[in-house]
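Posted in: Structural Biology > Protein-Ligand Complexes

Title: Requesting predicted complex, nicotinamide-adenine-dinucleotide in pocket

I'd be grateful if someone could produce the 3D structure tokens for the following input. Sequence and ligand are given below.
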Amino acid sequence: MTGRPKTYVTDGGTDVADESPSFDATVYYEGDADGRYIDDETVAVLGYGSQGHAHAQNLAESGVDVVVGLREDSTSWAVAEEDGLRVATPADAAEQASIVSVLLPDTVQPAVYEEAVEPNLEPGDTLQFAHGFNIHYDQIRPPAGVDVTMIAPKSPGHLVRRNYENDEGTPGLLAVYQDATGTARETALAYADALGCTRAGVVETTFHEETETDLFGEQAVLCGGVTELVKAGFETLVDAGYAPEMAYFECLNELKLIVDLMYEGGHMGMWDSVSDTAEYGGLTRGGDVVDRDAMDEILADVQNGTFAREWIAENQANRPAYGQYRRAEREHEIERVGARLRELFAWGGDGGEPRA
Ligand code: NAD
Ligand code: MG
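-- Reply #1 --
Done. Output follows.
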């Protein structure tokens, strides 16, 4: 590492921040990374999906030798080659590489690891992840002699790629689970740098923290919480006799506008933009729809491994319950109403929504 990692502590400019614990995380930027840890290495990128294609292309354009690891029957094989990348089977790629970046679906990682990666790991190699599930829940147990690291961009892969092309960065997380060489952090940081993440900032965390906060967030707030909130609001209005189209605009379509305001300016930025009536009504009524005890239970299931065991078993049984949940979601009235409205109104999903 060239420079000392910068430590960022919020100075708490507002009353609210003064009452909060300070954010005392280590954040790395471009100057903190040393290319020597990756420049002469070969990186195997296993998988060419959302994350895989972005990591492979960004690393290659940063001058790193990349080989993409894919099954021989994978439709991505030709795509990766058209993108100018070298492609091999996962075993061949892992054999050629000293850094193996595992960007396969989390549920298939253990089998591919066992069959193709582990036999090709040498002492001093780096096993690199973008999410901590399989390490944290013991589904992959790397040998003692290898470094085990994580660079997790906090963004879908296509944005990791687009930001890189636009000379912008994508914020990321860095974690070191096992430091066999004594330079695992330096290698991970050089990887993050080649990926474009140090342009924005890379926050140090642990596999434990990343995995549990990621699972909790997607279940309770982001993916699960928000869709259930929208459906319940939609159903409440429709059951009371209001037009489904009105319910759709109010409960789903307008959500984006509100979230955009929160994203830009936090909750206060949003409250300042809506009417006083919306603010007073929201502040007095909103809390009634949230069940903190249920959130505690969701977090406990993540922490004690109940969720992980359930999801692993569900996959081993070929996903019977998952299929049913997906079907029910697809058949919900809100999907039909939404499809019709998206056809009737010309908004491209890029923020040009009609204001309900
Ligand atoms: P994905 O489903 O988009 O892509 C997976 C790739 O693996 C595909 O190219 C697929 O063809 C390939 N693949 C599937 N089975 C395979 C097999 N048996 N052998 C070889 N190749 C196989 O996955 P993703 O969303 O990019 O996720 C990859 C990792 O990144 C996961 O650990 C995920 O948690 C993490 N992650 C994803 C995101 C995201 O936004 N998608 C964000 C951060 C971290
Ligand atoms: Mg996530």
